Amino acid sequence: MAPVSVSWIFRVQGFCIGSAGRSFPKGPERQDEMPGLETAPFLRHFPGMSDTSNPNFDPNPPRRNFYGRRHGKTLRQSQKGYLSEDLGDLRPRGITVQDNPGRNPIVPQAIFGDDRPLWLEVGFGGGEHMVHMAARYPDIGIIGCEPFINGVAMLLGKIRAAGVSNVSVHPGDARDLMDVLPDASIERAFLMYPDPWPKARHHRRRFVTPEHLLPLARVMKAGGIFRVASDIPDYIRQTREEVPPAGFEAIGDTDQPWEDWISTRYEQKALREGRAPHYVTFRRL
Questions:
Q1: Per-residue pLDDT reduced to its tens digit, 85-136
Q2: What is the pTM of this model?
Q3: Which CATH architecture has domain 6-284?
Q4: Known active-site residue 89
Q5: How many CB atoms lie within 10 A of CB 160?
Q6: Active-site entry in 51, 195, 231, 255
């Protein structure tokens, strides 16, 4: 695959909106405030994505609110290499509006080339948990969604170091993936230390709202497990209230981590700052 300019990766994130990652400094809050992709030669480097010469290219895709930033500190040269060399092969096809303007359901088995169980991590941050789970459960395939490009670069480095091959990376909004996943295609989902959006007027931005939970319930199999970890008591409160009506039952609610848990950098920060982690488990009805 030809090298990709990281600056164009930053621009394509105009369509990678929404995240369950941690809170970010203030930035543009709507997709329509960001540069468009009308002149994005970057797209030619990714099979299935296209520039305006393609008749299926949609310069005005459906708009969703974007909260947070897509990139942070300047990437190290090694991280730029991960993005240009690895991301294209790990990215699932048919997820973005440019890939799939008709929003047609994808074939989940095509992601890993077989019918292994599929897990989903929403907002994987730096990727510690995702890579840990992939290494511990090599017979499953785990898809991670994260629009923060620095986090994507960190994950790619961890994938290389761990040598795992059962990971797929969507550098964008989890809703875009859930739009095109068939019903009952995901067996397990993870929401690890999501952006807390502490102000009351911002609680609707949290992942644990019907806008996100109903699509998640649709794509999860009956009996599938949904795990949520947070150090924010009010986030846990909202999780307890909002998740069951979307089609789940609570089967675990504790301050003790799961047996296969790995403490992430966000959890370590919470512990240093005196906040207590909490772990909630749901089953899809």
A1: 999 999 999 999 999 999 999 999 999 999 999 999 999 989 999 999 999 9
A2: 0.78
A3: 3-Layer(aba) Sandwich (3.40)
A4: no
A5: 15
A6: 195
